[in-house]
Task: inverse folding
């Protein structure tokens, strides 16, 4: 059932149906069309293509797959990009819609798509991907089928949308904050480490003014060379009643002369800030397992099981396993996929993860990307997976 984005040569993918971006005329085109003809067997496939005849943009038709690891080749004709004012978007949407419908009529359980019309036909990749996601997700909401979006190389999948730019800035900003945070921690440890762990005495020095009444710590520990008179004075000094005694030097076990003294403890804030829950709410659900909280949230939002597992891009069998096992412990990918399907905010997502002993990490790009999408209310899991794929991170699948 789920949608997978994979990097491969589409002629090498194993699926019931392989989609070919066909030439509108009975001829072998360039790119994906030529690759599929060569892999399937040129003469046999061309003979079957002749039986179909010329095709219009947006149409789809099927032939046997011959030497491919598939049952069928679904031929569909994408439009040539002419600026978007000649029905190109509608034609691309029809390519996906008609191909999926034909695969369903042929009782296929899986289908593999290229990114239609983005090669020599020049359709903008980000728009083509958006259309593909919309059409495939709409189909999967009412059908059970495994769909593969096949990308030949990284260059073919470079998306230049604002969302990618924002995510990149978000990750870089968090990387900077994290480095600063740990730099501060390292500096504090260097400064105060000796305060708590130094076993040897700490050397410190004092400086005396001319009348030997003012004593102050020097900034850097260094040996003191005092005259015999000064040493005798210190050894025999007895303060009078109205003369304050000389200040006692600090103990080596409690302070290092070169270390700054912290005046107050600052409150730390995490990268994924979690607002306080009410005490009553916390106590009401303090013994919930992941499974119990999940289905409480599903009931609260008025959703059905199929709506949730389809939106989460997970298999029905896996969801049934979660439903039947009160102590089920999911992977982080599955837990986050379900959080996205339920459109949870960040507080609820963190709470759900904690029920499974999981957490979001500021040092994980995967966690940062999913966290960005949740914070910005991006709950289309197929769209989130395109961002994860672009950054070469695992996808949210069950």
Result:
């Amino acid at each position: 059932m789920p949608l997978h984005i994979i990097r491969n040569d589409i002629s090498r993918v194993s699926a019931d149906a392989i989609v070919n971006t066909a030439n509108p005329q009975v001829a072998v085109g360039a790119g994906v069309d030529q690759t599929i003809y060569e892999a399937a067997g040129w003469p046999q496939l061309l003979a079957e293509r002749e039986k179909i005849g010329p095709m219009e943009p947006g149409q789809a038709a099927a032939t046997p797959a011959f030497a491919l690891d598939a049952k069928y080749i679904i031929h569909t004709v994408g439009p040539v990009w002419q600026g978007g004012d000649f029905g190109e978007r509608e034609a691309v949407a029809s390519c996906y819609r008609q191909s999926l419908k034909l695969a369903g009529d042929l009782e296929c359980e899986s289908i593999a798509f290229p990114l239609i019309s983005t090669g020599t036909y020049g359709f903008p990749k980000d728009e083509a991907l958006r259309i593909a996601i919309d059409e495939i997700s709409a189909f999967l909401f009412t059908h059970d089928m495994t769909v593969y979006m096949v990308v030949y190389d990284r260059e073919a999948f470079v998306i230049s949308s604002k969302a990618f730019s924002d995510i990149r800035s978000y990750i870089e900003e968090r990387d900077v904050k994290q480095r600063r945070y740990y730099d501060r921690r390292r500096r504090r440890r260097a400064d105060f480490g000796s305060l708590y762990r130094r076993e040897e005495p700490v050397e410190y020095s004092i400086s005396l003014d001319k009348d030997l009444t003012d004593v102050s710590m020097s900034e850097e520990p260094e040996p003191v060379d005092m005259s015999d008179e000064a040493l005798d004075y210190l050894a025999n000094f007895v303060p009078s009643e109205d003369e304050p005694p000389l200040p006692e030097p600090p103990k080596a076990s409690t302070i290092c002369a070169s270390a700054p003294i912290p005046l107050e403890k600052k409150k730390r804030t995490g990268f994924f800030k979690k607002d306080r829950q009410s005490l009553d709410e916390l106590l009401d659900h303090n013994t919930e397992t992941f499974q119990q909280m999940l289905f409480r949230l599903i009931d609260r939002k008025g959703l059905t099981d199929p709506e949730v597992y389809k939106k989460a891009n997970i298999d029905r069998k896996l969801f049934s396993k979660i439903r039947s096992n009160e102590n089920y412990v999911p992977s982080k990918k599955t837990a986050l996929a379900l959080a996205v399907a339920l459109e949870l905010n960040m507080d609820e997502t963190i709470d759900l993860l904690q029920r499974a002993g999981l957490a979001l990490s500021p040092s994980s790009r995967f966690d940062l990307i999913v966290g960005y999408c949740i914070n910005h209310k991006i709950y289309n899991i197929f769209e989130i997976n395109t961002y994860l794929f672009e950054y070469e991170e695992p996808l949210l699948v069950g």
User: Anything to note?
Assistant: Residues 206-221, 252-261, 263-269 have pLDDT under 50 and may be disordered. Residues 271-390 form a domain with the 434 Repressor (Amino-terminal Domain) fold (CATH 1.10.260). The longest strand covers residues 146-151.
